[in-house]
Amino acid sequence: MNAPTTTTRAQALPAGQLRRLMALAREVSFPAGTRLFEEGGHADRFWIVRTGTVDLDLRVGRRAAVIESLRHNELVGWSWLYAPHVRHLGAEAASPVRAYEFDADAVRRMCAEDPEFGRDVSQWVGGVVAHRLQAARTRLLDLYHPYGSGGPR
């Protein structure tokens, strides 16, 4: 199994730490239309996309709004790192997806046992969270604000 590169929209995990993380990976596949998780569900695992697209969505009223589409080398799921480990978004395979899957408990144990690894993982995931928050804000403004996001005001 080849480790993914660290090219992402958010801050990348340093290469050495990524190699350590990849030692815990298992390869999985999802057909298009598969729900990886639901908003409000327990966050017991996460993924790094190898191929395909995963849509992140947020329930707004009775429907789900797609907030962001994740592709090659992007992290799917961040709630696994932060208590109470409850999903804040939903995720669905928009196309056939191949990914690396990680057991959240195993990664959290590794973070606890090695503070440097834990710090790097926290910074990586924190950067993803910050990016996703901005993407969600922009998308919701585009969908529901009368003038769209329109950039800074």
UniProtKB/TrEMBL annotation:
Signal peptide: none annotated. Pfam families: cNMP_binding. Residues 9-110 form the Cyclic nucleotide-binding domain. This is Regulator. The lineage of its organism: Bacteria, Bacillati, Actinomycetota, Actinomycetes, Kitasatosporales.
